[in-house]
Design brief:
Elements lengths: L1 H11 L12 H24 L3 E7 L3 E6 L2 H4 L9 E6 L10 E5 L7 H7 L7 H27 L6 E3 L4 E4 L11 E5 L6 E4 L5 H13 L4 H20 L5 E4 L19 E6 L5 E9 L7 E12 L7 E8 L4 H6 L37 H25 L4 E7 L4 E6 L10 H10 E9 L5 E9 L14 E9 L9 H27 L5 H6 E6 L3 E6 L5 E8 L4 E8 L14 H10 L3 H18 L6 E2 L10 E2 L1 E7 L2 E6 L3 E8 L3 E6 L20 H6 L13 H5 L7 H8 L170 E4 H8 L19 H21 L4 E3 L7 E4 L3 E7 L7 E7 L7 H15 L6 H11 L3 H15 L9 E6 L18 E2 L2 E10 L9 E9 L5 E3 L7 H20 L9 H11 L9
Antiparallel strand pairs: 1-2, 2-3, 3-4, 5-6, 6-7, 7-8, 9-10, 10-11, 11-12, 12-13, 14-15, 15-16, 16-17, 17-18, 19-20, 20-21, 21-22, 23-24, 25-26, 26-27, 27-28, 28-29, 30-31, 31-32, 32-33, 34-36, 35-36, 36-37, 37-38
Helix pairs in contact: 4-5, 14-18, 19-21, 20-22, 22-24, 23-24
Length: 1174
């Protein structure tokens, strides 16, 4: 214990206490050796493991340790050398400290390393081994450096002693991260290479090779030199749009010069020019093992079978070898303006050579980066210049702009376009000052062609178009599948130039016609924008509508688009319904002035036409679930609009100049007015109805209504032939007239009155203002029938359904089956409005306004109730074209109306001659009321034939339907004052119980609730069933109708009543809504709607009450129908209780009807609890 304590104390504080004072030297050395042995065993057990082995230990003599034992470590690398360290006591001189010996001996390298490895005065075996391993590692690195020196006398490798490392520059100049670092593993003594960016498998191969044979590092350095050169190239173009690859699979590599490239090469693909590659070849420099020579080539490839097919090499061209000088002198060849220049004396001193930069910048290949950047920038221009030359478009080639920072190609001349006149081409060439192509954007795929033009022929109101010169910028996105600057870009530019030329020709003609343009068109329109690519015209009273004219290169046609601007920007343009026809007209005759004239003539009529209801409605016919379109707007030409009313009646509207339109019955064929277009029916009385809206101030003369309703025979075959053949010589105007009445041929409507001063469009001159003389559609009152020679829509494949019938496409569509004569020839028709002078039909009608008393003259329409001749009843099924009497086709003669009259005719308005309280809630236009009344009259005739209780009565009055029941004689006809309502006149067969008031209520109910809007078939059918009811039942129903029409007469009642002729949607589920609500057999079923009388601010309560009247017992009670809702069920229970109590208190007497009394009781005493709703 004493000995161990002394050893520890000596180790901890050798200066305080020495063992030599107690023991001899030999004992102390033995004790130190024992301590080192103990440290060795502990370190082997805890940390070293097999890395250090105890070879032999002899107490008080020596301790031998083995390190770097390759066989023990399992590394079969070369000779199994054993490195030993022996710590021993000098036997000859015991006063010497412990001696250290190495096997094999340490080399004479660094003296400090040798000194530390030969002493152990610190008594730490671990520190001794570390110093020994450091010395041996330094020795191994020195041997490896000697091999490098032998191979390369200029070797610049060096050894770092802190951590034994040999740093070997691979490619000079070389950054630290690019050098190969060879370490010596202190545990195993093996070489461990490290190079940033090198794959681990390759590092493992290098390690194994140099540990087996250090001389083989020379070959590895040669391979790493090419690898590092390739990495430098990759890093140099990493920030550029490129993709690098070592191998490029080419289908013709065997026969192409690209197959002769060197082994070490790199293909750099320009991603924005995918068909181009930069090839970098890396070659040896014989005099310098740490240098490489770069050789650059340009390679173009193509795909044989699309983008995914194999690539084929096209062009391989080597760049000049002095690229480095080109890079240095790229910006120094020309002196920039404003820069200082050296005087001649200052040029004598040579500029000192700058040292080469070291560090990471040595890896940057500036020649390659500059080469890639220049190719990426210039190749699109070279490709564009090549395509321009191939298409024989003269240009100045690639020019440098912007102080050398950008490039451009200027065109010297652009080819003329087909379809453009020589005068237009020369004017456009004179105005074109410059045309330049540039690249824009970061991806180098966007081309911008800048056109500079002067002497713009048209002045617009746009603020950016007030300069003397205009700049037009055309942008083209190069497709990814096409090379940048390829043929596609040139073709797109030529298409745009063609579009500019085509529009420029229209604008040039328009500009020449502006001085002669009528003043009303100048006030009507303005040029809002003209940028050579599109022309935007704003028109209208407030200039709130716009039309844009452009040339479509894909379809080779002008394209028109309509819109609204300013306060009307949220609305729809009224001309949208004739956009197709306008576009066809403009493409046949591209005249801006003519287009403005048509827009002027049609804007007001189309505003009125657009107000017509076009939404399909249910319940108009017996099939309640089938929807029918009220009005179908069918444009036939820009100035001819056809209106189909419920697929039965057809109205043709022709827009003419000077604020008028011509309206006719479109059911009559345009070629033969005695024939009917299949699928349509003539509207009886249409001529008389339209004459009520004729403005007396518009016409210069008046002719009788009888002349209109009884026109002479149609034109003969010779006139028809002259209309079909516009090239036939024109007969004199007198030959074009009809009989003694001066009626013009039906297919050639007359002109306006001769006393009216003709507009410029009527003058026989070739001025641009004479657009009608050149075939204006607005002047053509009568276009040929869009249905062709066979006037049958069904024979032409037209389905008369509500959806397909309302097709907006007219006969001007080239793909349309309709044969429409070109509007450009209408002005040449014999007897057209521009060549025949004479009075128009409208000019022969005086004072035909709705308020004119002359409307009720004794010469009415043949279909009026007081006409003297008979009228044939129209059959329900319309056969193919058939002959009609002369008088019914009076409506085929156009009626001239002003725009204001057309607005009155087509805009919704209250029903005239009716008390506001009696008018229905459905507001519609006078035309809809007239046509609806005509339809209801037609329905009534069919219903009478089906009802057993009604019988038809022959009448000599045309347009009048007379029928009778057992006790009543009824007469139904249009109201002769306005032709907008259907009136019923009831006369008792003999003196009976009917009072005059009851008959008036029945007539008024028919006019306001049955035959009025929305003109439903089932409503009329239900009313006729009521007419056939027994007298006592009908009288009670009339008394209920009186309470509905005049609710104020039942002031003491709590409810208002409405007689439901069709089942309402909120009724109990007994039948679909819209079904006839009157059933009359042994019992009578009908429906009433009761509405509670409450103050206005509150929402009224309404309930539907189904009533059943038993004719045998005379009892009136509620129909027993299951209810779904609890609230309606509670109301139904209360209604049943009131009716039962009434039947108990007032039993029915023989022949007495209790319907009205029961309903009156119900309206007086029914009180619903709060919260009850139907």
């Amino acid at each position: 214990m004493l000995m161990e304590s002394c050893v520890i104390l000596n180790l901890c504080s050798p200066g305080l206490f020495s063992l030599t004072t107690l023991f001899p030297d030999s004992f102390c050395l033995s004790l130190q050796l024992e301590v080192l042995h103990s440290q060795t065993l502990m370190l082997i057990r805890e940390r070293w493991g097999d890395l250090v082995q105890e070879e032999r230990y002899v107490p008080a003599k020596y301790l031998t340790l083995a390190v770097w034992n390759q066989q023990v470590l399992g590394r079969k690398t070369g000779t199994a050398s054993v490195h030993k360290v022996t710590i021993k006591i000098d036997e000859s001189d015991g006063s010497k400290p412990l001696q250290i010996s190495h096997e094999p001996p340490l080399p004479a390298c660094d003296s400090k390393l040798m000194e530390r490895a030969m002493k152990i005065d610190h008594l730490s075996v671990e520190k001794l081994l570390i110093d020994s391993v450091h010395a041996r590692s330094h020795q191994k690195l020195q041997e490896l450096k000697a091999i490098l020196k032998t191979s390369n006398p200029g070797d610049n490798s060096f050894i770092e002693t802190a951590l034994p490392t040999l740093v070997i520059p691979i490619l000079e100049p070389c950054g630290r991260s690019e050098c190969l670092h060879v370490f010596v593993d202190l545990h195993s003594g093996m070489f461990q290479p490290m190079l940033y960016g090198l794959d681990q498998p390759m590092l493992d191969d290098i390690e194994k090779t140099i540990n087996d044979d250090m001389k083989r590092i020379i070959s590895w350095l040669q391979q790493l030199k090419f690898w590092l050169g390739e990495q430098r190239c990759r890093q140099s173009v990493k920030h550029l749009p490129t993709v690098c690859t070592d191998v490029l699979h080419l289908s013709n590599i065997a026969s192409h010069p690209a197959g002769n490239l060197s082994k070490h090469k790199l293909f750099i693909k320009l991603t924005r020019l995918p068909q181009y590659y930069i090839v970098v070849e890396m070659l040896e420099v014989p005099s310098s093992p740490t240098a490489l020579q770069y050789k650059y080539s340009f390679l173009s490839v193509s795909h044989l079978e699309g983008e995914d097919g194999p690539m084929c090499a096209q062009l391989l061209q080597h760049f000049k070898p002095n690229l480095e000088h080109l890079v240095q002198d790229a910006t120094g060849k020309g002196a920039r303006p404003g820069t200082k220049r050296k005087v001649s004396g200052d040029q004598g001193e040579p500029e000192p050579k700058k040292p080469k930069r070291s560090g990471e910048m040595c890896a940057f290949n500036k020649e390659l980066a500059h080469l890639v950047a220049m190719c990426d920038t210039n190749m699109p221009f070279i490709g564009l210049r090549t395509e321009l030359s191939n298409m024989e478009i003269p240009n100045e080639g690639v020019q440098v702009e912007g102080d050398g920072s950008s490039h451009a190609i200027r065109l010297l001349k652009i080819h003329s376009c087909k379809g453009v006149g020589d005068e237009t081409r020369r004017a456009l060439d004179r105005s074109l000052l410059d045309c330049t192509f540039r690249l824009q954007g970061r991806n180098n795929r966007t081309w911008v062609a800048e056109l500079m033009l002067a002497n713009c022929p048209l002045n617009s109101t746009h603020s950016k178009e007030q300069a003397s010169t205009r700049h037009v910028y055309l942008t083209y996105e190069n497709p990814l599948s096409e090379p940048v600057g390829g043929r596609k870009v040139v073709e797109m530019f030529l298409n745009d130039w063609n579009a500019i030329s085509q529009l420029y020709q229209c604008v040039l003609n328009f500009a020449r016609a502006l001085p002669e343009m009528p003043s009303y068109l100048s006030l009507f329109s303005e040029v809002r924008l003209y940028n050579y690519r599109k022309l935007v015209l704003c028109y209208g009273t407030t200039k709130g509508s716009s039309v844009t004219i452009q040339w479509n290169s894909s379809s080779q046609r002008f394209h028109l688009s309509l819109g609204t601007v300013g306060p009307n920007s949220g609305c729809s343009n009224c001309h949208n319904i004739i956009l197709h026809q306008l576009q066809e007209m403009f493409n046949k005759c591209p005249s801006v002035l003519q287009l403005l004239q048509v827009l002027f003539d049609t804007q007001a009529p189309l505003n009125a036409i657009n107000k017509l209801p076009t939404v399909p409605m249910l319940g108009l016919t017996q099939r309640t679930n089938t929807a029918y379109q009220c009005f179908s707007i069918l444009p036939q030409s820009p100035t001819h609009i056809r209106l189909a009313f419920r697929n039965m009646y057809c109205i043709d509207i022709y827009c003419r100049s000077r604020g008028v339109v011509a309206i006719r019955d479109g059911a009559y064929s345009l070629f033969d007015n005695t024939k009917i277009v299949e699928g349509f029916y003539p509207a009886p009385g249409l001529k008389t109805f339209l004459n009520m809206f004729v403005d007396s101030n518009q016409d210069a003369r008046r002719r009788s209504v009888n002349e209109d309703d009884n026109p002479p025979s149609p034109v003969g075959v010779d006139v028809i032939d002259s209309l079909i053949n516009p090239l036939q010589p024109q007969p004199p105007p007198q030959a074009m007239r009809g009989g003694a009445g001066g009626v013009y041929p039906l297919t050639s409507p007359p002109n306006y009155h001769a006393n009216v001063t003709p507009s410029p469009s009527m003058m026989p001159t070739q001025s641009p203002g004479n657009i009608h003389a050149s075939g204006s559609p607005s002047g053509a009152l009568r276009a040929p029938s869009p249905f062709g020679p066979t006037p049958s829509p069904s024979s032409l494949g037209i389905t008369m359904g509500p959806s397909s019938f309302a097709s907006p496409h007219g006969a001007l569509d080239p793909s349309s089956p309709y044969a429409m004569v070109s509007p450009s020839h209408r002005g040449q028709w014999p007897g057209s409005p521009h060549q025949v002078s004479g009075p128009s039909p409208g000019a022969r009608i005086h004072g035909m306004s709705p308020g004119n008393p002359s409307l009720h003259s004794p010469i009415p329409d043949p279909h009026s109730p007081r006409a003297g001749t008979s009228s044939q009843v129209m059959p329900t099924s319309m056969p193919p074209p058939r002959k009609l009497p002369q008088r019914p086709w009076a409506a085929s003669i156009p009626t001239i109306l002003t725009h204001n009259a057309l607005h009155v005719l087509l805009l919704p308005s209250p029903t005239p001659c009716l008390v506001p309280g009696l008018a229905g809630s459905y507001l519609c236009s006078p035309l809809e009321r007239f046509l609806g009344s005509v339809i209801m009259r037609r329905h009534l005739q069919r219903i009478i034939q089906q009802e057993a209780n009604l019988s038809i009565v022959n009448s000599n009055e045309p347009g009048v339907i007379m029928f009778k029941t057992d006790v009543l004689k009824c007469r139904v006809a249009l109201n002769p004052k306005n032709y907008q309502t259907l009136q019923l006149k009831v006369t008792p067969e003999n003196t009976g119980p009917w009072s005059q008031e009851e008959l008036q209520v029945l007539e008024k109910f028919f006019e306001t609730r049955v035959a009025g809007p929305p003109f439903k078939y089932n409503t009329l059918n239900a009313f006729t069933k009521l007419l056939g009811a027994p007298t006592n039942i009908l009288r009670d129903c009339v008394r209920i109708m009186k309470l509905e029409l005049f609710p104020d007469q039942g002031a003491q009642l709590k409810w208002n009543v409405q007689f439901c002729l069709t089942i309402p949607p909120s009724a109990p589920p007994i039948a679909p809504p819209g079904t006839i609500a009157v059933v009359l057999k042994s019992k009578m079923l009908f429906f009433l709607q009761l509405t509670q009388r409450i103050p206005v601010p509150q929402e009224p309560v309404s309930i539907i009450v189904p009533i059943v009247y038993d004719m045998a017992t005379g009892l009136t009670q509620q129909a027993d129908i299951p209810r779904q809702h609890s609230s309606s069920g509670a109301a139904a229970l209360m209604v049943s209780n009131i009716l039962k109590r009434f039947n108990e208190l007032h039993p029915a007497r023989q022949g007495e009807c209790t319907i009205f009394a029961s309903v009156h009781e119900l309206m007086a005493n029914l009180t619903l609890p709060p919260g009850t709703r139907q």
